[in-house]
Amino acid sequence: MKLILPLISACTLVLSLSIPTSPYYLAQQKALTIPQWVGKFWNSVFLSEASNEAIMRADFGSWLDQQRNISFQGILNNIGGVSSLLDPKEVYDGVVIASPSKYMPNYFYQWTRDAALTIKSLIDYLDDTRVSSDVAEVQKTVEDYISNNYILQRLDNPSGTFGDDDKSGLGEPKFHPNNTAFEENWGRPQRDGPGLRVTTICAYLELIDKYQVPFIHLKSGKDVYTEIVKPDLVYIIKNWNRNGFDLWEEINAQHFFTSLTQLRALIDGSKLAKKYEPQDSGFIEELKNTFNDVRKYVEWEGGFIKSNVPYVIETPSLLSLGKRSGLNIASLLASLHTHDLASKDYDNIPYDVDHNLVLSTLRLLITDMKFRYPINRKHIGVNNVGVALGRYPEDIYDGYGTSEGNPWFISTATASELILRLIYKLETGRMNIVIDELNSDFFKQFVDYLEAGQTIVYGSLDYLELIDQLIKYSDSFLQIVKDHVDNEGHISEQFNRYHGFMQGATDLTWSYSAVWNALRWREKVFRLLNPSKL
């Protein structure tokens, strides 16, 4: 079926400060037209009947609106039950495939992590619409996802089983789209999936309470908690301090992204436990103690933070062995997916978007990749313009095999979203900006006379100038996304470091989610800064 989505957008009312007028934008290179064949077989799937028309690259505001709708539809097209493009015999209801690509590369699977992150985008959409009757199909899709995960949790798989004391089977990273176990060799277990699933499901249950709307087919919130959420919490309690593979499925170790997302899940799970099983004081206490242990590990014992390293270290063991620097976009993804600027419940989770180490991590990734990727070299010498970002400096995965790493849409959109969230937090908290040794190089891109020890007072001329520059900066990353999607707004996994054409898995669900998230936050910032234009 074709889903008609209500457009919730103020993007066409472009931020008064958001369209940069620097020479970079005025002399912007001609937009890329993505061919059907770029050295590899290109397996393209139309997003919808409306997407066959060329996107409007020339007008940034129009593109924002168009790409936001295309990205949202791109998510739905990759979910069983709501997609008109997927065979229901192949992809069951509620299954989120990573990509329709079945070879070169084969991403035609459901990953626990990717599914949780993209379904969270649907929940944010429901929140924006106040779960109106017009979006019942999206609500049903979320509930289908939840019901499907009850089945996945109980599948025996190479990582283990549901029935043992450690719930070991919950660490299995991916399954076939017909809900059978993937039996081949893989980077397993991956210990971030259960926590991300907890956070996504908790967000949906809170949404139901917030707007007092009924479930479509789920039995009850308590049933969802006891049957699906609680087992994932048990898994975290039992396994948080054990090695597992990272979100890029390459390294078996301890990882910042995994630990921080587990912290978020423990808070979410504690809220549900207190609501649905307040009598189980022992389990509630166990959640609290585990949270304290994981937080202590993240901040002091895990090696993610070192006094002589000016960024968050994603996988400390690799740095210790001299194999990698530790710089990784995963650290920024961790910050985004573990904090909620609308709630104080997560204030005890460290490394929010305004943390000096988070901002330093972003700056150093940009500095590295500005020189690493040839398509970025035109920006060398320009400090306040975004560049195409990849996963980490040492990356050699090219989307098909190993050679040279490339920029990713997820990474580039993440930079934009992080900056937008920073603006939102500064504005809603009416916060002064304290310049220190770690964040000074980030902020000096925009106000060059800043030095460590200075404070930018909220509402001052310097503050307003900085916010202006940050908005332009966030938009410059979205400009890069605009330049490298194809003419119908399709988004793959990567774009080539030399010529900029898309490559890797086509119509990547996580790419659509990351771009949609960034565009959503852009609108939230617009609404905050321009209330008179609503």
At a glance:
With 534 residues, the chain is mainly α. Helices cover 44% and strands 3% of the residues.
Chain-wise SSE layout:
Layout: H1 23-26, H2 60-76, E1 110-111, H3 112-128, H4 136-153, E2 174-175, H5 193-211, H6 221-239, E3 244-245, E4 252-253, H7 256-276, H8 281-301, H9 316-320, H10 329-338, H11 356-372, H12 409-428, E5 433-434, H13 440-443, E6 455-456, H14 461-484, E7 494-495, E8 502-503, H15 509-529
Antiparallel strand pairs: 1-2, 3-4, 5-6, 7-8
Helix pairs in contact: 2-15, 3-4, 3-5, 3-15, 5-6, 5-7, 6-7, 7-8, 7-10, 10-11, 10-12, 12-14, 12-15
- What separation lies between the terminal Cα atoms? 33 Å
Overall pLDDT score: 91
User: Helical proportion?
Assistant: 40-55%
Radius of gyration: 22 Å
Low-confidence stretches: 1-51
Biggest pleated-sheet summary: 2 strands, antiparallel
DSSP helix count? 15
GO molecular function: glucan 1,4-alpha-glucosidase activity
Domain GH15-like: 74-515
Organism: Scheffersomyces spartinae
EC number: 3.2.1.3
Record keyword descriptors for this entry.
534 residues, mainly alpha, two-stranded antiparallel ribbon, 3% strand, globular, carbohydrate metabolism, Glucoamylase, 6hp_glycosidase-like_sf, glucan 1,4-alpha-glucosidase activity, glycosidase
Describe, in plain words, how this protein is organized in 3D.
Its EC number is 3.2.1.3. With about 525 residues, the chain is mainly α. Helices cover about 45% and strands about 5% of the residues. The chain is built from 15 helices and eight strands. A hairpin with a 6-residue loop joins strand 7 and strand 8. Helix 3 runs antiparallel to helix 4 and helix 6 crosses helix 7. The protein is globular and about 60 Å long. The two termini are about 35 Å apart. The N terminus is likely disordered.
